[in-house]
Amino acid sequence: QVQLVESGGGLVQAGGSHRLSCTRSGLIFDIDRMGWYRQPPGKQRELVAQFDLDGTIEYAESVKGRFTISRDNAKNTVYLQMNSLKREDTAVYHCALHRGSREYWGQGTQVTVSS
């Protein structure tokens, strides 16, 4: 059974940096997409960054140039490096994996950016 576990959330000052990790357990092949989503308070969940099947990376416009997604296949881990954080980056960040019609989600980790 595939499970995703996020870690690294916390309280960060505006302008600072922070890194999130998502570790996958369970065997799965031919992952279509894997990456990060977030849900700000009172808003809908949105894509932050993800890897496509061919390795192409997609970023939300709001994080381009500030956030970097990376992965360590040997550790089954995907990272989200967040720089120049803004208050509007405050959200619950979820790791997600898509394969065909199946979706797998982590429990989420809270990132709060204070001014």
Tell me what you see in this structure.
With 115 residues, this protein is mostly beta strands. The chain is built from no helices and 11 strands. Strands 2, 4, 5, 6, 9, 10 and 11 form a 7-stranded mixed beta sheet that branches. A 4-stranded antiparallel beta sheet has the order 1-3-8-7, with no helix packed on it. Strand 7 (67-72) and strand 8 form a beta hairpin. The chain starts with a strand and ends with a strand.
Would you tell me the overall average pLDDT?
Answer: 95
Order of helices and strands: EEEEEEEEEEE
The radius of gyration computed from the alpha-carbon positions, rounded to a whole number of angstroms, is 13 Å
Strand segment tally: 11
- What is the assembly state of the chains in this entry? single chain
Largest sheet: 7 strands, mixed
Question: Approximately how much helix is present in the residues?
Answer: under 10%
Strand content: over 45%
Helix segment tally = 0
| Uncertain ranges | none
The N- to C-terminal Cα distance equals: 40 Å
Secondary-structure content class: mainly beta
Q: Quick one: overall form? A: globular
List keywords for this structure.
115 residues, mainly beta, 4-stranded antiparallel sheet, globular
Provide a concise account of the structure shown.
The protein is mainly β. The protein has no helices and 11 strands.
